[in-house]
């Protein structure tokens, strides 16, 4: 059962509808799901197929993704399911939009994931004009969060998710949770049209601290949901003490959300690396 007083929405981070069903049954609720190309590549059916030496054609792979997303959507009809467009260094905003529109028609509750790059932001700006729901992914800096806010001004609450990747910052010695704290703080000055979705969650501590910070949404792999369930689905509030160990905190930046979105410096090395890795995992499935 969903704990009373749980204010954050809880999403499963995965690419397998059977896993969705399992956690829906054990937790008694799920508010949504996020997928990405690497998670689809880990889907058990995809793995079996690759182990047999049978890759997909590009169309088959998209059809495979569509089938998974449709199965998940039926399981969580009142939630949101994030579906990620293909993007590599060459992909233009128009390419992303064309694929995003197609994916948006797959299910009634999609959020289309776009990378937080220059082309991804252009696509986001246009997607909002077309009334699409989007999830800006691979966010690693407060400037990127400010740019997303500014590029999607006018969107309704819940139309835009922002996914800062906590674990990947931790991996290089930076305190990913401090980015969540900073973005939530900065967004307090805004109109609330962007919801912060804590992503790349690697531990129960990440999860609990995101609850304590009142992240709008938290997406988490099955393993962490399992740990949370085993612990009796505890909540965390102001008293929660997050041990960031030796991780270096990211300083808060004073940024003006009223600025034009094209003026922010959105470049981040981890975004570029992330785009390449998603593309590589996807392309590895294609013959
Ligand atoms: C979800 O939206 C993200 O794609 C996911 O949380 C990334 O997690 P990872 O950094 O463990 O790959």
Q: What is the strand content?
A: 5-15%
Task: Note the overall shape.
Answer: globular
| Average pLDDT level | 98
**DSSP, total strands:** 8
Task: Determine the N-to-C terminus distance.
Answer: 44 Å
Uncertain stretches: none
Order of helices and strands: EHEHHHEHEHEHEHHEHEHH
Write the layout of secondary structure elements.
Blueprint: E1 9-13, H1 17-27, E2 32-34, H2 37-41, H3 44-51, H4 58-75, E3 80-84, H5 93-104, E4 110-115, H6 118-129, E5 134-139, H7 142-151, E6 160-164, H8 166-171, H9 176-187, E7 194-198, H10 204-212, E8 217-220, H11 222-230, H12 269-283
Parallel strand pairs: 1-2, 1-8, 2-3, 3-4, 4-5, 5-6, 6-7, 7-8
Bound molecules: erythose-4-phosphate (E4P).
Erythose-4-phosphate (E4P) binds next to helix 8.
Tell me briefly what this model is:
The protein is α/β, with parallel strands linked by helices.
